[in-house]
Every structure is written in structure tokens, then in C-alpha cells.
Amino acid sequence: MSDLSSFFAEAFATVAKMLGAGFETAPALMLGLTVIAALPVLVAGGALLRRVAATTDRTVRADKTTRVKGLHSDEPASPGSPAKRSAPAYSQAVIEIEADVDGDRDRPHEPFKFGAAVIVRIGREEDNEIKLKHPTVHRYHALIRRSFEAGYEISDLSDARGNGVIVNGEKVLNAPLANGDEIKLGAARLRFGLTQ
Whole-angstrom distance between the N-terminal and C-terminal Cα of the chain? Predict the structure, then answer.
């Protein structure tokens, strides 16, 4: 065992002397070679970390949602400004469609309950989880996502020329949501709430 350790110690000392001499005579060349040698290790390490992160941060698809009847909003949000705090991610969120086609409550809509969904898309297209009909609503207008760090947050998916997302009277690109917040997408009006 001591022969093996002395062999590695001698080999390491020889390599260290060669590297030292190389850095003294051609430092730029040695630096380039070091980067070339280290790059595959860094790429492999990054790929491994991405794979580990992908398996620990899986997204639950929104097709595992359920619909509920009734929405009770105990704490309305303050009018004129979006919520400063977001709803806890472990709460059950519900979206009630208050107005869709003509700006009035034109037809009864069942409130949409998040269930196990992490991301819910809102828009006119059929593959959105919450489908609206009004022509001022974009095909993919907004999404609401849930995370344990930030709670519920809405994001605007419409372009700069679009109608945008308005939370409690204020146009936002991204905003946390709290119980009772009013959301406007074009002429459509929705209400975010938490169930008990």
C-alpha cells in the first residue's frame, strides 16, 4: 500500500512540476489547455444537476383539476392595487368567472378549482384549462401558477399591444394573487378565491 501511495505522490509531484514549468514559459497556452480539460467536466456536472433538478421539481399537469360549486371570499382585496402578499400554495384556489361574453354574467359558469394543478392557462383556445369566449380575450391570455415559495401568481401571456392582465384595477405583467382579487382579461372578469 505504501508503494502505491508513494507512486501517486511521485506522479503528482512530476505533473505539478510540468504544469509549473508550462505556466512559466507559456501561460496563455496552459490556461487554454486547462479550460479545454475542465470544460467537459463542467458540462457533465451541469447536465447532471439539471437532471436532478428536473426529477425533484416535476410539474403536476392541470388536467388533474376538479370543478366545484360555490366560491366564498371572506377577505376581499383592497380595491385599486394588486395584493402585496400571495395566497399560500397549500390553499385550494378557485377562479370564478363573473363576466365573459358581454361584460355581464351572461351564462352560469362553474367556478374552476385548481385541485392538483400547478399551472392553469386562461384564454379562448379549447386547450386552456379556463376557456373564455369574449373576443377581447387572447387565445392564450394569462396563466396562474402555484409554488410553495410564492403561492399563487398570475402572468400576462398577451403581447405588448394586447389587453393585458388587470388585477384589482392595476395592469400587471406578473402579480401575486390573494383571496378576493378581481382579475380582468379584456372584457372578461374573474375572481380569485380560496376555499376553506
Answer: 67
Q: What are phi and psi of 147, to 5 degrees?
A: -140, 155
Q: Is the pTM of this model over 0.85?
A: no
Strand partners, 164: none
What is the per-residue burial (b if ≥16 Cβ within 10 Å, else e) of 32-47?
A: eeeeeeeeeeeeeeee
The edge-to-edge listing of strands for the beta sheet with 66-67 is 66-67, 112-113, 92-99, 188-195, 182-185, 165-167, 170-172
Classified as helix, coil or strand, 91 is coil
Q: Please provide residue 18's backbone torsions phi and psi, each rounded to the nearest 5 degrees.
A: -65, -45
Please tell me the distance from the alpha carbon of residue 86 to that of residue 176, in angstroms, as a whole number.
5
Angle of helix 2-25 versus helix 27-56 axis, rounded to 10: 120
C-alpha 120/C-alpha 192 separation (Å) is 13
| Alpha-carbon span 14 to 7, nearest angstrom | 11
How many whole angstroms separate alpha carbon 71 and alpha carbon 196? 10
pLDDT mean by block of 10 residues, the chain; 196 residues: 86 90 89 88 86 56 46 47 52 84 58 84 93 92 88 89 91 93 94 84
